[in-house]
Design a protein that fits this description.
Elements: E1 5-7, E2 10-11, E3 15-19, H1 20-29, E4 37-42, E5 45-54, E6 58-66, E7 73-80, H2 84-97, E8 99-106, H3 112-135, E9 143-144, E10 148-149, H4 150-156, E11 161-165, H5 174-179, E12 186-190, H6 198-206, E13 210-212, H7 221-235
Helix pairs in contact: 2-3, 2-7
The structure holds S-adenosylmethionine.
Length: 236
Amino acid sequence: MTRRRFIADTFTLTTASLTGDQAVHLARVLRAQPGQIFDVVANGFLHRAEIVTVSDREVVFALHEELEADAALPVHLLLAVFKFDHLEWAIEKSTELGASRITPVLARRTEKHLALAAAKRVDRWRRIALESSKQSRRTDIPTIDDPQSLPAALALVIAPTKLLLAETEQDNTITAALNTSPHESIALAIGPEGGWTAEEMQLFTTHAWLHVTLGPRILRAETAAIAALAICSALL
Ligand code: SAM
């Protein structure tokens, strides 16, 4: 039986609470009652949980046994900042596909007004990742970093396998690169609508990133992100 799943806003070792919109939804829409059983993620672990008290402001659960849950995909996505509606779609879908971390990058060809507005959008991007985690029944929420310059973003990457998605690459396919590289954790970088500049590509090379292609067609950045993640997901 698939139970409804919630991600706790606060928790202790034995209890978890939902507050804000989640409490209102449970109390008013689902008309939750003490004694009902749901699945609740608390501190990154999935539990069977029983409602103890319900109000519009807080729903308190007693945490019961821990349940088995899938780990996130060990993929760190560096995503250049591009048109916000497309970027937000990419964040939502990357979360569904299991990315563990997303770093928005202020690339050379990120449009100026988007680069200036990006810092103010991060809270919204984190909310999108939270909602998408709930919807896709993840037990964790991906880390969404503050927007970074490219050198700062590169310094955050610890994955041994680092793949720069580049439409200029003709030969080295992402699948070939993944088949010959360690899989324990992977970083992927997707450029903005105008692509990476030659200097940025050189910087990636200096940091030991492999340039890889997704095929002969030029994909929108968000399509490239989803395709690359789906391929990693299949291989991992
Ligand atoms: N520079 C290109 C242009 O304006 O013709 C378009 C860049 S594309 C819209 C945005 C990003 O998607 C690229 O920087 C790259 O990371 C990724 N991308 C698109 N098509 C790709 C492909 N066939 N292989 C690998 N990456 C691709």
